[in-house]
Amino acid sequence: MAETGTISPPEARSDAEWREALSPEQYRVLREHGTERAGTSCLNAEKRRGTFTCVGCGAPLFETGTKYESGSGWPSFFAPLEGAVDTTVDRSHGMARTEVHCARCQGHLGHVFDDGPAPTGLRYCMNGVAMHFEPAD
């Protein structure tokens, strides 16, 4: 258990600590595998050089150079940073999809699909509420 006045590292946080650290919408997406409404994230329009990080633990996830406009309504990338994400099979909603999690805190980020651009052919369709943008400058 965390000492009074401190919060456990993200990978060891209790549910109460997660609720304290995140907004209700961030909690719903990261911890309950929710999805934000399409077209609502300010990160859709983000084009500055920088890094998209996990809102739950601050781990770097994606660089601006891998972001592209997919037309899906969510921030999309063709590749994560090496070792930044883990994937699992999501069988909810009567289909099998590949769910993407932060490798450090296991927060739900979104899903990856095989309809993206070269060079990977992948579309990492991420919930903007699950990420923070850190400009390079």
Automatic annotation (TrEMBL):
A single Gene Ontology CC term: cytoplasm
InterPro entries with a match to the protein in the record: Met_Sox_Rdtase_MsrB, Met_Sox_Rdtase_MsrB_dom, Mss4-like_sf
GO molecular function, one term: peptide-methionine (R)-S-oxide reductase activity
Catalytic activity field: L-methionyl-[protein] + [thioredoxin]-disulfide + H2O = L-methionyl-(R)-S-oxide-[protein] + [thioredoxin]-dithiol
GO BP terms: protein repair; response to oxidative stress
Record's signal peptide: none
Pfam families: SelR
Keyword Metal-binding: yes
Cofactor: Zn(2+)
PROSITE patterns, per database record: MSRB
Keyword hit for Oxidoreductase: yes
UniProt KW keywords: Metal-binding, Oxidoreductase, Zinc
Entry EC number(s): 1.8.4.12
Segments forming domain MsrB: 15-136
Family, similarity comment: Belongs to the MsrB Met sulfoxide reductase family.
Protein known as: peptide-methionine (R)-S-oxide reductase
The organism's taxonomic lineage, starting at the top: Bacteria, Pseudomonadati, Pseudomonadota, Alphaproteobacteria, Hyphomicrobiales
